Amino acid sequence: MSAHGDHDLGHTVAGWTGTAIGVTGGAVLGAAVITTSAALLVLGLAVVVLAALTCWALHLAGWGKPTGPRPRDQQDWRSRDTAARHGHPGCLGCRMAGRGRVRPAATVPQAVPHPVASDGDGSVAGGRVPARAV
After folding, report:
1. How many helices (H) and strands (E) does the chain have?
2. What is the per-residue pLDDT for 131?
3. Are 88 and 100 in contact (CB under 8 A)?
4. Cα separation of 118 and 19, whole Å?
5. What is the pLDDT of residues 13-39, one digit of tens each?
6. Are 25 and 48 in contact (CB under 8 A)?
7. Distance between CA 13 and CA 7 in Å, rounded?
8. Which of 1, 6, 40, 51 has the fewest Cβ atoms surrounding its Cβ within 10 A?
9. Distance (Å, rounded) from C-alpha 14 to C-alpha 6?
């Protein structure tokens, strides 16, 4: 049992790596504010963007987790997510990568009824279906 009980808090390789890089970017941004350095500000913002992209890439590679709790045997932070290849339902990151989209079924043309000439008594004229003019 973990220190948090049976909750699946999402401790994953993608989460920890993204957090570590993001904290580094935050520290660089803090140094930029203290020193009033525009170069450090740009560097810090670049590191924060790198953190987001790294976390996203690791999530897509299977080192993240889907939304909601995972099965008990997959809650270790080093467990790979085998469903990541096809995308997680409702996951914005997967949808942005083109995964998990519901592809529309191929449309099948529907039969369209054509008017048929009638003798007036409800039967088809001449007992046959007239040829359709093309």
Report:
1. 3, 0
2. 59
3. yes
4. 77
5. 888 899 999 999 999 999 999 999 999
6. yes
7. 17
8. 1
9. 21
